[in-house]
Specification:
- It is a single chain.
- With 488 residues, this protein is α/β, with parallel strands linked by helices.
- The chain is built from 12 helices and 16 strands.
- It has helices at 47-54, 71-85, 93-105, 111-128, 159-171, 178-190, 200-209, 254-257, 278-296, 301-304, 350-367, 450-466; strands spanning 35-41, 61-67, 108-109, 142-143, 222-223, 229-235, 238-244, 269-270, 273-274, 319-322, 374-377, 387-391, 410-415, 431-440, 469-471, 480-485.
- Strands 4-12-2-1-13-14-16-15 form an 8-stranded mixed β-sheet, with helices on both faces. The chain has a two-stranded antiparallel sheet with strand order 3-5. A two-stranded antiparallel ribbon has the order 6-7.
- α1 (47-54) packs across α9 (278-296) and α2 packs across α4 (111-128).
- The longest helix has 19 residues, at 278-296.
Length: 488
């Protein structure tokens, strides 16, 4: 995928994917059974993990292996998975769904959701940081033993101002007529691609403010620190790391859970308008996934939901005073390279200079704000029978074929659009017989023209064939391409 100006709206870090959640074991002609291994390369969020777990048969065992191109994405995936696995006694499914979607798709969240973010992030940081309690046993579903971590960068920037700076840069002279631009992208692009459930008012609010999900009355004005990352610019000959929001500002987080549903009532229309919105569908889908997780974890989820429970009312027996640790970064303090990271040695551009200037202004305001302490609670995570998720180092894709542990191991391999260029013939060495390769296409990358979208699909087929995979016949999924391992 090109890293040029044409995909600036997609950002340089993938906080959510550009396609709906898929059961990766059901994408081929024959569903694998028994002990199954799935490799995710650049999925960006846990949507496929949750959907695949929810579709497991009782006797199946699933081991998911995850490779990302940014440690910040790894940290956020862990955060969302920990939240997903929180037991119903700690957090009812209805509340968990709301908190999950707020953290998933909003740059600004309610203060109650921020409390939950701090609680989960603090315990997660304690669990994976070498400097903290080394006697804590690893959770059977989440394995981070192959990763190294250190404490996060200090003082995050204002997320809303960072969001607005991105919108201004992306639209340029069109900024003053931005609502017309937003409406055009929705009606002439997303709606034409079959996303009619994305409501105009909700989409424009997200494009304007970065808030996709508003499910409760309250003020959405607290920064969601899980959506912050560092981008490296050239500034007057020096490499400068700018902390801000560098993710998608065009396609929307509705794509992951909000545009497809098995409940046809949610797709009902009146006068050619959808009655329900992408937010409604996202809530229904995520709640269904969490109910499936609870059932596999041995909980009778529907009877245990506390729909009116608020995240501030968690039992005091779980509370303790602690300093927040809301982000995780690499062990050596350096920025890890990934496909869209802007770390070139070219001369400083006007956009880079403005980005650095804006970040400095934002940081100056943040540094004047008083520090706060947050309470935390001891998380209880569900143990899902026969399910485990392991996170691999960022640069491990090219190294897996060299290790006997991964020889012909993976029944399904998923690759995002941003990382498909990393696939080569060595993929055959880690693919199990009859393995399935699923590749995300560019259908929902709105900055691309139809010609560019089609050219990318052709390129994906070429790369897959070069890696030893042939297209699955009679495909009807425009968001993903599926391939099977070619027989020798």
């Amino acid at each position: 995928m090109s890293t040029g100006q044409t995909v600036e709206g997609a950002g340089c870090i993938t906080w959510w994917g550009f396609g709906p959640a898929r059961d990766l074991l059901g994408a081929g002609a024959v569903r694998p059974e028994g002990e199954v291994n799935v490799l995710l390369v650049g999925s960006g969020d846990p949507r496929h993990i949750l959907k695949t777990i929810a579709s497991l048969r009782e006797a199946d065992t699933l081991h998911v292996w995850v490779i990302e191109n940014s440690m910040e994405v790894v940290a956020r995936q862990l955060l969302l998975l920990c939240l997903s696995l929180t037991t119903p006694e700690i957090m009812g499914i209805h509340e968990k769904t709301e908190v999950f979607l707020e953290l998933f798709g909003n740059v600004d969240i309610r203060c109650q959701t921020e409390e939950t973010l701090k609680h989960v992030a603090t315990q997660l940081s304690h669990a994976v940081t070498d400097a903290l309690d080394t006697h804590t046993e690893a959770h059977p579903c989440l394995d981070t033993s192959l990763l190294k971590w250190q404490h996060p960068p200090s003082s995050p920037a204002s997320v809303f101002k960072a969001w607005d700076a991105r919108v201004r840069q992306h639209l340029g002279t069109r900024y003053d007529s931005r609502k017309g631009c937003f409406d055009w992208d929705l009606t002439m692009k997303l709606h034409q691609k079959g996303c009619g459930v994305i409501h105009r008012q909700q989409y424009i609010k997200w494009r304007e403010r970065g808030v996709a999900f508003e499910m409760r009355e309250g003020l959405y004005q607290t920064a969601n620190q899980s959506l912050l990352s560092t981008r490296v610019f050239n500034h007057r000959g020096d490499r400068v790391g700018v902390r801000g929001y560098w993710g998608d500002i065009v396609s929307s987080p509705y794509l992951s859970f909000g545009i497809e549903t098995e409940n046809k009532d949610l797709l009902e229309t009146q006068n050619k308008q959808h009655v329900k919105t992408a937010q409604d569908i996202s809530v229904a889908n995520v709640q269904m996934l969490f109910e499936s997780l609870s059932a596999r974890g041995g909980y009778r989820a529907p009877q245990m939901v506390n729909k009116g429970e608020d995240s501030q009312n968690i039992s005091n027996s779980h509370m303790a005073e602690t300093q927040p640790q809301s982000d995780l970064s690499t062990s050596d303090g350096t920025e890890q390279p990934h496909q869209n990271q802007n770390s070139t040695d070219s001369q400083t551009t006007e956009e880079e200079t403005q980005a650095v200037k804006t970040a400095c202004e934002i940081q100056a305001e943040v540094n004047m704000q008083p520090k706060t302490h947050h309470r935390t609670f001891q998380l209880e995570l569900m143990k899902l029978s026969g399910v485990s998720v392991s996170f691999l180092p960022l640069d491990s894709l090219s190294k897996l074929p060299l290790k006997t542990r991964y020889s012909h191991l993976f029944n399904t391999i998923y690759c995002s659009a941003s990382m498909v260029h990393q696939l080569d013939s060595s993929l055959k060495e880690i693919a199990a017989p009859d393995a399935l390769l699923v590749v995300e296409l560019a259908k929902y990358l709105l900055d691309l023209s139809k010609e560019q979208e089609g050219a990318f699909a052709v390129k994906v087929v070429e790369i897959a064939k070069g890696a030893g995979f042939m297209p699955v016949l009679n495909q009807n999924d425009a968001a993903y391409a599926a391939f099977t391992l070619q027989k020798n």
